[in-house]
């Protein structure tokens, strides 16, 4: 990751949002600096994920000018005097970034003093092209070092523990020792942070590259123990001979396998790769997509093992019913993080069903059993399938065989293929039609016959409405009209 002034100037010059902010400031006669993480993004040649505009005088006037120029909605931030956020309108799809306009106080240096970390404590003057860097953020960024502006002040703002992890993940930074110790002292106070802010930070971390490394950093800092004590309960839980790692090591490896699969799904799932990418990009709730929810679910998928662990007389470790226990804990965590109904349902559904494909193989895999799984899981079928495969790939103990893994991979691919087929090809007949024509009231019998027709359709035995009805008519003993 190359850090250069040329990157800075070129990136901000070519960024339409930054150019609009500069023009709006000139029209109103205000002097601004582009500050915060946007400067670090530009230094490494990355389009800023958002803009912080530090205004020398009237931040309100600047916010109104920007709102007029961009069509964005200005929203004063509660508890932050003079700070205004500009949010994209719901119908705007070309640029979903936000702008935050802040008063610079008595000067840009004073404003930067309030930044948490040196890589955030930089500003760019679009008029002169000068970089304002009073704490050496540019050199820290180039050296891959995360350093607090004031380590002693981190405890007063524990949310910066999560910010530190986000910055480390975004720019591949190692935490400097004094900052590391300060973050560890601040982490136990994370419970004071508003739950929605915590979930927002965790969702961004789960969406960023190398989520397994992020999870390890969260543990090292004590953030996982503070925010997700249910995860901390499995840090030292061992596993049986099916596994080569304990529960925590297994969890990290599951996340690594997930990332490898989702970064290049065409490698594992061939023609469905692009569709899986599109599927994972769909928002579940609050702008958080399926991919982020999937990695968060992977992080907590085995938390029920701490409470369900038993040891037989022969010394075998067992975790009977751990998926149900994990789902109950996942529901508790989701509520604590203030997730909405859809988000909570997604997390609990993925965690509670992550063993479903394993049970499918034990019961006997067939077109009928796979389609039943697809029907039961609905829109979560792909998510459960890839989580289940990552779980299996991370299970490589003495009792695991390469043949077993290959068979599991084949079943997962078939389930994913069945899911997309089920979306692409509608049913040939509706339940009401079968019920009326067979003179049988709606119920389990009709549901089973509809599944039978669906299986026959999948296997190419029927291809139209008439054939579908003829296929099930013998089962109704001549009643079918």
Structure description:
The protein has 481 residues and is of the alpha+beta class. It folds into four domains: 5-143, 2-Layer Sandwich (Beta Polymerase, domain 2); 150-227, Hydrophobic Seed Protein (Orthogonal Bundle); 228-424, no CATH class; 431-476, no CATH class. Helices cover 56% and strands 8% of the residues. It contains 26 helices and 13 strands. It has helices at 5-14, 16-28, 37-43, 59-70, 108-113, 137-143, 159-171, 177-186, 195-207, 211-221, 223-227, 229-232, 247-263, 265-269, 273-280, 290-300, 305-308, 322-336, 341-352, 356-363, 367-377, 381-393, 402-424, 431-438, 444-458, 465-472; strands at 32-35, 51-55, 73-76, 84-87, 99-103, 123-124, 131-132, 145-146, 174-175, 283-285, 288-289, 310-311, 317-318. The strands form four sheets. The chain has a seven-stranded mixed sheet. A two-stranded parallel sheet has the order 8-9. Helix 7 links the parallel strand 8 (145-146) and strand 9 (174-175). The longest helix is centred in the C-terminal third of the chain and has 23 residues, at 402-424. The protein is globular, with a radius of gyration of 27 Å. It starts with a helix and ends in a 9-residue tail after the last helix. The mean pLDDT is 91.
Q: Total number of helical segments? A: 26
Q: Total domains, how many? A: 4
Classify the oligomer: single chain
Weakly predicted, low-confidence segments: none
The strand order across the widest sheet is: 3-4-5-2-1-6-7
What is the approximate shape? globular
Backbone CA Rg: 27 Å
Q: Fraction of residues in helices?
A: 55-70%
Amino-to-carboxy terminus distance? 71 Å
- Overall structural class, as computed from helix and strand content, comes to alpha+beta
Mean pLDDT: 91
Strand content: 5-15%
Number of strands: 13
Main beta sheet: strand number and arrangement?
A: 7 strands, mixed
